[in-house]
Amino acid sequence: MLKWQRRKDERPNEILAAALGLFVRKGFVSTTMDDIAKKAGVSKGTVYLYFPSKDSLFKNIVHELMVPKIAEVEVFIAAYEGSQSELLKLIISKWWATVNRSGLAGIPKLILTNADKFPALTKLYVKEVIHRIQTVLVTIIETGIELGEFRRTDPVLSARVIMSSLVYFSIWHITLRKYDQKNLTVENLIEQQIEIILNGITK
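Structure (tokenized):
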């Protein structure tokens, strides 16, 4: 494939990455298509060529940037054999490494600040992201219970407790960290979270 062809193939994801960064930093409402084009280094017409609206950009951020990562985890746990405690530790730890590296750590903040303004987009996020992540965690917890590794607990409630911590960690990192303890990191928080969770559910 020629260099210009590779560049053209990469352009939609470059536009999505630019839009995501601006949505998180400036807000969904305040970000314009002109802003996104400038950030991505393309013309506004090029942005509209791939994405006819900001709603379309957000939907594609979910479908093209987030859902494939969740799908990879789903495939991984389906083939996994071994300790569910170790699997849970791995999934939680890898979560932060993945979302931080990809810029997706700002998505929870974006959703929470725009949920009621854009209910259709919020419903999409809940269905395609929250519910699928919940299912991943529920599967691990239920398997651990079946194997006698975890004590009997409500898998859905346990999954939601884990997820609520992860959402807080993302928002803290994006919004609050610069005002808080400088030596505290999400990695510190996750390490402590894993210890508390496993102490609570492991037999």
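Confidence is low (pLDDT under 50) at residues 1-6. The radius of gyration is 19 Å.
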